[in-house]
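Supplementary Text 2. Reproducibility record for the structural model of the 356-residue chain.

All settings were left at their defaults, and a single model was retained for analysis rather than an ensemble. We include the record here because the model underlies the residue-level annotations in Supplementary Table 4.
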Amino acid sequence: MKIRFCVLSIFLAVLLMPMVQAAQLIEVFVPNGGTIQDIVDEELLEEVQSSEAILISWHSDNEDPLNILAAEQRAVALNASTGDIRYDGTLLAGDIQSGQDIQVHTRWTETGDISIDAQIRLNETIGDEVIIRWLILRPSISVDSHPLAPNDLNVVAYHAWTSTFNRSEGADEVWNHVVQPTTLLEWGIEPGENVRVVTSLISMNDHLVHASGISHLDAHVVEKGAKSTATANLIMGIGILSLTAVFIGEKKRQQSMPKIRPIVTGNGDNIQHRIHVQAGAAGIVIDGIEGGRTWRMVARRNLPIRLEPKEETEIQIRKLRAIEHDDPCTIKMEVDGHDRWILDLRFPRKVASEEE
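Retained model, structure tokens:
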């Protein structure tokens, strides 16, 4: 009799035990300057507090200071406007797509990385269109720099995804994702900051959510060395990019500049002075040649002279008189896309042959 009563009690307990449903992902598209509290009701917020749902805030307005590109892309994918709510990607709260929870475990490493381990046992084989999406949320952040501005909740600050994982039915694997301090800083997240991490399985065809999980990662004191290293690496990376840009710009400038060479040929009374000019990658306009007391251009009426890229010409110069120290011959020109060019030339005293 006691055994029967015990079995019956266990049966009733199991029968009356509330069924635990997977927490659905609620995505709120918040307008610029607004917060989640302006859109969702208290009942929904209570569900989030009791872990019955996962709530995230997308700031999809591209002028919003909390905007990231992924927010705009998600709004387009779900055809959502600011002020809209989506439940696992659908319009109605009853159309729950999540079949089960993803167990998400996160931790700060000594070097300031966020290490994420997500685990789920797949009930069925999933298609190639399904990806794993990683989000890092700020649990509370001001929507504006004004000191009295309100704070929004669970704002998406980081987005990444992968399509490489075991999709077979019964697969029970741990998916790992590491976010380095330099990456956090690039996304505006301070290493060691209080954050939330959401991992989801999402279809790239219909953009619906198959499963989700969340982990709360409390603030952590990151070693100053790690933070300094991350900052230094970020600054060094910016510096390298800047130097590369300067190098490329200088190389492009040099390629645009013309090649100019003074030439002396002949002998005795037949010595001739010429300036050979070849345009570089940019066109040029020669609009002035001056020589002080020593030089004068023959046929000055031909100025200005326009040369297209790679085009070349020779300009004949006449020496007015011989003095111990010749004045330089100054050539002035405009180079397309660059500053004005002024160059002083001195002709060699050694006479070159025509072949040279």
